[in-house]
Amino acid sequence: MAIWDPWRGCHRYSEGCKFCYIHKGDARRGVDTDHIVRTENFDAPVQRLQRGKNKGQYKMKPGQTVYLCFRSDFLLEDADPWREECWQMMKERSDLHFLFLTKRIDRFLQCIPADWGHGYDNVTVGCTVENQRQADYRLAIFDTLPICHKDIICQPMLGPIDLRGHLENIELVEVGGESDREARPLDYSWVLDIREQCIRADVPFHFRQCGSNFIKDGKLYRLNVRQLCAQARKAGINTGKNGEDGQSTQVCDA
Ligand code: SF4
Asked: What's the 3-state SS for 95-155?
């Protein structure tokens, strides 16, 4: 696994951005997240070793998944002048698999390179939908786009979401709650409902994290950051791709 942040910074865009961890982290360090800048690692996938016995080889070893722009949004307007170069690097590194998530899927067609065709086979796009309103709007667009590998990300999940009708050709649905002291609650019944939709559509499902304010069987649990992923794993409800195919009701049981 590798991380590639060709630029830093982002603008809040929709309901799911309220407690964006990038904005919160930057605020603590006095950094203006709305100031978008290219990073020193803009060309990370094609950087080569300068010395040693592997001199001249790519620094990013082949065969990895590269998490692209997880500290921004790859389809951010401010990055329009830089994105073409990124596509070219992704094309050059066909031995890597790139994954980016976006809330700006409605910008996709104006952001792709001329030779995109049906999509690059080494790129997965995750469309983020935090509530039913955004799911209805973004997934209607996502359904129509030429992308070889598609995921749906419901995080932070802010309410029950009906994905039915949008699960064809989806490789993974990932669900998670919000992390913040003031986080909007995640009800476990919403998570199980999406899991059921995925099982019926034969789509892998992954419960990534609980919410800081997590409701199960009508009871509110306040979880700290360290518990969020651990409790989700404890639930054991992942299916398919990298999932345990397990079923447990242990999440947040005392
Ligand atoms: S789009 Fe993502 S990175 Fe940008 S402000 Fe929203 S949550 Fe943060």
From this structure: CCEEEEEECCHHHHHHHCCCCCCCCCCCEEEEEECCCHHHHHHHHHHHCCCCCCEEEEEEC
| 73 in contact with ligand 1, CB cutoff 6 A | yes
10 touches 45 (CB < 8 A): no
Structural domain of 34: 2-46+58-154
Same domain, 110 and 232: no
The Cα-based distances of 213 to 154, 181, 187 in angstroms read 16, 8, 9
- 124 and 183 co-located in one domain: no
Residue 169: inside a domain, yes or no? no
The residue whose CA is least distant from atom 5 of ligand 1 is 12
Total domain count, the chain: 2
> Within this chain, do residues 32 and 144 fall inside the same structural domain, yes or no?
yes
- pLDDT tens per residue, range 232-241: 999 999 998 6
Q: What is the pTM of this model?
A: 0.95
Q: Are strands 170-176 and 205-209 parallel, antiparallel or unpaired?
A: parallel
Q: Using one digit for the tens of pLDDT, what is the confidence trace for 117-145?
A: 999 999 999 999 999 999 999 999 999 99
Give the residue whose CA is nearest to atom 7 of ligand 1. Answer: 17
103 pocket-lining for ligand 1 (C-beta < 6 Å): yes
Are 110 and 36 in the same domain? yes
Identify which of 21, 72, 77 to mutate to test ligand 1's pocket (most ligand atoms within 8 A of the CB).
Answer: 72
